[in-house]
Specification:
The chain has four domains: 6-92, Zinc finger, CHC2-typedomain (DNA Primase, Chain A); 103-232, Alpha-Beta Complex (DNA primase DNAg catalytic core, N-terminal domain); 250-416, Dna Topoisomerase Vi A Subunit, Chain: A, domain 2 (3-Layer(aba) Sandwich); 426-537, no CATH class. It is built from 23 helices and 17 strands. It has helices at 6-15, 18-23, 69-77, 81-92, 104-128, 134-142, 147-152, 164-167, 173-178, 241-251, 260-268, 284-293, 305-318, 339-356, 361-372, 378-392, 398-416, 418-425, 436-448, 450-455, 457-462, 478-509, 515-537; strands at residues 29-31, 34-37, 49-52, 57-60, 66-67, 156-158, 182-185, 188-191, 196-202, 208-215, 223-225, 238-239, 254-256, 274-277, 297-302, 328-333, 359-360. The structure holds zinc ion. Zinc ion (ZN) binds next to loops. Zinc ion is lined by residues 39, 41-42, 49, 60, 62-63, 65.
Length: 539
C-alpha cells in the first residue's frame, strides 16, 4: 500500500461534507442532529442509516456499518482506497497529491509565512494609532468602528513607505515574496500595500493568510487583496468565517453579505453569523464551506441590478448543495443602501426586518424565471421552463429534486396556463357532445399552437376535453387551426342558441309570450350563420 499523505485525506474530510458525499447515493432526511436514510449496505425499508455532519461519519443501526467519506465510497462503490480518494478529490476540486507527507521544508516554509503575516498585522495595527495613520483611523472610526472592533478584527494601516520590506530585510526574500506582502522592483523589494486601511484575512483556523487593503484617497479599486499564494486562495476564503463559525452553529444559519465592512458591522450588531466573499463573486468553494458549517443560508444583496445578478448566481451555485433540511433565502437591501448603512440608520431592528422578509429559494427562482422571460408568450414560457429545469437538474438529492420539479410543474400549470386550470375547475356545462375526431383535432391544435390555445382559452375550457391526452398528428397550418377553433366556437354557440330557441318555442306553444325573445335568438342565429360563411370563404 502506498503511503498516503495524511494531510490530504484530512483536507478531503475538511472540504467535503459527508452529507453531500452520502447524499449522492442515498436520499437523506434530517431528523434532530443527524441525517437519516435507508442503508445502502443492507436491505431495509425503514431508515436506520444515520449520518452525522459535524463528526463526519455514518453509522447503520441495522447492520453496524460505520465509517467516514472515504470508507463510504470504498464500500458503496466497491473500489480501493486510491480510487475512492481520487473520486473524492474530484468532488472537492482538489488535485491528487503524489502521496508524500508534507516535506519538513514545506512545513517550515509555511510556518515562516504565518509568522510574516502575523508580524505584518502587528506593524499595521501599531501604525494605525500613530501620526502617519491618523487619516486612516479617522476614516475607520467614521465608518462606525470602535477601538474594540479595530482590535478584534486587527485592523491596521499600511503607510506609503516600505515597512514590511524593511522589517524583514533578514528573512529569506523568497519567503517574503511568497506571502504576497512584497514585490521585487528595480531598487529591490518594496511593499505591496501602500497607504491602505488594512483588514487581515484569516483562515478557518484563525491564522492570517492575506490582507485586504482599502484605498483612503478615493482611488480605485476601492479594495485590493493579496494575490493568491500558497496560503491564500481567494476563491476558497470567506471573510469573517473564523469569527462567525460558532455563531453560525448557534444561529443555525449563516448570512452572506457582499462586502467585508458590511460583514464586520453585521457581526458586531446582532448578526455574528455573517460572512462575505472577498470582493469577488461567490464560488462553489465558498458555498461548500458554508454548507459544511450549516445548510441554512440567507444571502443578503443590494437591491440594484448587480445585486440581483449576484443573487441569481448564488442561486445557481447553491443548487447542488441543497438538502431537504436546507433553508436558503434571498434578502435585498433596497434604496441604494448596504447593510452597513441600514444598521446605522435603522439599527438591528431594520436589518432584522430585511432578513425576515427574505424570499425562499423556490420563490426566488420562480421570480427570476418570470422576470427574465416573457411568460405571457408560449416561446417565453418554453424558455422559462427550460431555465427552471436547468436549475433544478443541479439538485443532487433525488427526492428533493422531485419535490422541486413537482412544485414548479404546479406553478407552471396554475400561473402560466390559467385557461387549462379553468378547464379543470369550472363546472362542465353539458354541451352537445364533442365527437372523437373533433376532440383529437382540438387536442392536436392546442399542443401544436399554444398561441391559439391561449387566445381561445375561455372557450376551450368549456369543452369536455382532457388536453393532456395524446392526439394523432394531423396536417394543419396555424391559420387553418385558428379557423377550425373559431368555427367550432361558432357552431357550439349556434347549437346553444338553437336549443334556447327550442325551449322558447315550447313555451310559446304552451301559451307564453316569448315571441320577442325568439326574434332576438333568430337574429343571433342569422348573425352566426353570416360569421360562419365569412369564416369559410376566408382565405
Ligand atoms: Zn445497514
Amino acid at each position: 500500500m502506498p503511503k498516503y499523505d495524511r494531510n490530504f485525506t484530512d483536507e478531503l474530510r475538511e472540504r467535503l461534507s459527508i452529507v453531500d458525499v452520502v447524499g449522492r447515493r442515498v436520499p437523506l432526511v434530517k431528523k434532530g442532529q443527524n441525517y437519516w436514510g435507508c442503508c445502502p449496505f443492507h436491505n431495509e425499508k425503514t431508515p436506520s442509516f444515520s449520518v452525522n455532519e459535524d463528526k463526519g461519519f455514518y453509522h447503520c443501526f441495522g447492520c453496524g456499518e460505520h465509517g467516514d467519506i472515504i470508507s463510504f465510497v470504498m464500500k458503496s462503490e466497491n473500489v480501493d482506497f486510491k480510487t475512492a480518494i481520487t473520486e473524492l478529490a474530484n468532488q472537492a476540486g482538489l488535485k491528487m497529491p503524489d502521496y508524500k507527507p508534507k516535506p519538513a521544508a514545506q512545513v517550515a516554509r509555511e510556518e515562516s509565512y504565518y509568522q510574516i503575516m502575523n508580524a505584518a498585522a502587528e506593524i499595521y495595527q501599531k501604525l494605525l494609532y500613530e501620526q502617519v495613520g491618523a487619516h486612516a483611523l479617522e476614516y475607520v472610526r467614521g465608518r462606525g468602528f470602535s477601538d474594540e472592533m479595530i482590535k478584534h478584527y486587527r485592523i491596521g494601516y499600511a503607510p506609503k513607505n516600505n515597512v514590511i520590506a524593511n522589517k524583514f530585510i533578514n528573512v529569506k526574500q523568497d519567503n517574503l515574496m511568497a506571502t504576497g506582502m512584497c514585490r521585487h522592483g528595480d531598487y529591490g523589494m518594496y511593499d505591496f500595500f501602500r497607504d491602505k486601511l488594512m483588514f487581515p484575512i484569516f483562515n478557518a483556523r484563525g491564522q492570517i493568510v492575506a490582507f485586504s487593503g482599502r484605498s483612503l484617497d478615493g482611488s480605485e479599486p476601492k479594495y485590493i487583496n493579496t494575490t493568491d499564494t500558497e496560503l491564500f486562495h481567494k476563491r476558497k476564503t470567506i471573510f469573517g468565517f473564523n469569527f462567525a463559525r460558532d455563531a453560525i452553529h448557534r444561529a443555525n444559519r449563516s448570512i452572506v453579505v457582499e462586502g467585508q465592512i458590511d460583514a464586520i458591522q453585521m457581526q458586531c450588531n446582532g448578526f455574528p453569523e455573517t460572512v462575505a466573499p472577498l470582493g469577488t463573486a461567490l464560488t462553489e468553494d465558498h458555498i461548500s464551506m458554508l454548507c459544511k458549517a450549516n445548510r441554512n443560508i440567507v444571502f443578503c444583496f443590494d437591491g440594484d441590478a448587480a445585486g440581483q445578478k449576484a443573487a441569481a448566481r448564488a442561486c445557481d451555485i447553491v443548487m447542488p448543495f441543497l438538502r431537504d433540511a436546507s433553508d436558503v433565502r434571498f434578502a435585498f437591501v433596497t434604496g441604494g443602501k448596504d447593510p452597513d448603512e441600514v444598521l446605522k440608520t435603522g439599527g438591528a431592528v431594520a436589518m432584522q426586518k430585511i432578513i425576515d422578509n427574505a424570499t425562499g429559494l423556490a420563490d426566488f427562482l420562480w421570480n427570476i424565471a418570470n422576470a427574465g422571460f416573457n411568460v405571457s408568450t408560449p416561446g417565453g414560457r418554453t424558455q422559462a421552463e427550460k431555465f427552471i429545469r436547468q436549475k433544478t437538474d443541479k439538485i443532487t438529492d433525488t427526492s428533493l429534486r422531485n419535490e422541486y420539479e413537482q412544485e414548479y410543474k404546479q406553478r407552471i400549470f396554475n400561473q402560466w396556463h390559467k385557461w387549462k386550470k379553468q378547464s379543470q375547475n369550472i363546472p362542465r356545462i353539458e354541451m352537445p357532445g364533442v365527437d372523437e375526431i373533433t376532440k383529437n383535432t382540438v387536442i392536436f391544435i392546442v399542443n401544436k399552437y399554444p398561441e391559439i390555445a391561449e387566445r381561445y382559452g375561455d372557450f376551450l375550457a368549456t369543452l369536455k376535453i382532457d388536453f393532456d391526452a395524446n392526439a394523432p398528428e394531423i396536417s394543419m397550418d396555424m391559420k387553418s387551426a385558428e379557423k377550425y377553433i373559431v368555427s367550432l366556437k361558432l357552431q357550439k354557440y349556434m347549437a346553444r342558441l338553437q336549443s334556447e330557441k327550442k325551449d322558447l318555442t315550447a313555451q310559446l306553444l304552451g301559451g307564453a309570450d316569448v315571441g320577442e325573445q325568439i326574434a332576438v335568438v333568430d337574429a343571433k342565429i342569422s348573425d352566426v350563420h353570416q360569421k360562419l360563411d365569412t369564416l369559410i370563404s376566408m382565405e
